[in-house]
Amino acid sequence: MTAAVQLALAIVLEIVATTALRQSNGFTRLWPTLLVATCYPVSFYLLSRALRTISLAVAYAIWSGAGTAIVAMIGVLAFKEEMSVLKASCLGLIILGVIGLQLGGSQR
What membrane topology does the annotation report for this chain (predicted)? Predict the structure, then answer.
């Protein structure tokens, strides 16, 4: 499995775990709690594997930035959380920062 695939799977699992964390109701609901307890460790494991070939700054920026942006959108769409212009702008800045690190990280 390539590092990019490992990183992508790590991101998906982190998103599932974070969404389940909200649904766990303080770890009082079984299935969301089991998802959290399963997905976070596997996500970190896959992230650690991806770090064998992807630089730390780039991999972590992509992992955390993509996770943050997608979880924020899930919050708005699935949980009816508020999305202000300021929040949307800040998410855009996160995405730009990830892109900038990726572009900067590929130059040697």
Answer: Multi-pass membrane protein
C-alpha 76/C-alpha 54 separation (Å) is: 31
> What is the residue range of 88's domain?
3-105
- Per the prediction, the chain carries an average pLDDT of 92
Distance, in Å, from the CA atom of 100 to the CA atom of 88, rounded to the nearest integer, reads 18
Q: How many domains does the chain have?
A: 1
End-to-end alpha carbon distance in the chain: 25
The DSSP H or E segment spanning 75 is: helix 56-79
Q: Mind listing the pLDDT tens digit for each residue in 26-73?
A: 999 999 999 999 999 999 999 999 999 999 988 998 999 999 999 999
Contact between 13 and 42 (Cβ < 8 Å): yes
Burial class (CB in 10 A: 0-12, 13-18, 19+), 18: buried
